[in-house]
Amino acid sequence: MKMLVVCSDFPYPADHGGRVDTWGRIKVLSELGWKIHLLVCGKQTPTKEEMKAVYDYVEEITLCDRRSKLADLLHVIPMQVQSRSELKNVDLAGDYDYVLLEGDYVYPILDNPKIRQDTAILRVHNDEAVYFKALARSTKNIVHKMYYHMESSKFSVLQKRMLEKVDKYLFISSKEFESFQKQNPEAKSLFLPPPVMNGSFEASDFQSKHVVFIGSLFMPNNREAIQWYLEHIHPLMLKEPEYKFIIAGNSRKQSLSWLDAYDLTNVIVHDTPKSLTDIYRNGYLFVNPMQNGAGVKLKTIEAIQNGLPVISTSIGYEGTGLIDNEHIMIADRPEQFYGKIKQLFDNPQTAKALLDSSQAFLRMHYNHKEVLKGYIQSLNTSYQVKQVL
């Protein structure tokens, strides 16, 4: 069985949420015995080392140029999609049993003559119309705000077009899946949690007093979350002995001067770190104070997997299935948020119990391989997926 996986970004290294999800799925599909052809239409060209790492799991890699131009803003198709229109002209082998679209951005692949629409499966990373509207709320830049609102409106139209061409959907968010299923009961849709490997859960000794936030530093919703924490929570935390606030993420070489307006006493920033291992290992807890967003915030799942209990706003944990005060702590008002951190700081056993409970939940409910395997079998009952590892 052969599958074409179409991405808007090279999936390796898995250094942000979208890549983590896509890369984990590629590995799972390889373990299930699929021959994978990978087609990527993005801005960044992978290194030889990155290509080599991906070739361990895929049979063929095709890179397609993403071509952005100002005129794309005037097109009825979202700019993120229109800039990848070259996908419809890429020469492909064809004869794919399934074509997995990693998000709405790669919609043009459906117009490629080598692709049969009945083989298409869409991985829904976000409700893009909702996501871009949330980005518009997060940014203070008027030009960016206008652009995000335009993209949001265009994605609303594109989603209706997508429904005419695709009837197979895999949602990363349980909340978005449930909403879609109610409106489109005829579609073959399913909640497919992000990949979590059972053997990869870390523990914490809760010795440091590091509060950790990890997320893409070029994204306005992550910047907004950090700014909210620095304005409302960080000044209260400075009276805690040995407390530090650790910020880490990929800036894509954009300026971090937006941090300068805040008191950065005991704040440590890791701009585009090569590894997050020590940052997680030296952390006490993870905060996700997001004010706007859509889909599942994979940073929450990754933090739990890497051994940190999580305190989040309601936005930061929606769609995960995690339960407040059982697997995660939720607070939307600053005084509540600070109180939750203080509670875990003062009670390491409570912090450990919260982490253990959340990791047990992920082990039980986030079995990506079994859910994906069952879904594919349900589409083609004559074929039995054989696991090779």
TrEMBL record:
The keyword Transferase applies. CDD domains: GT4_PimA-like. This is Glycosyltransferase involved in cell wall biosynthesis. Keywords: Transferase. Pfam families: Glyco_trans_1_4. One of its GO terms (molecular function) is transferase activity.
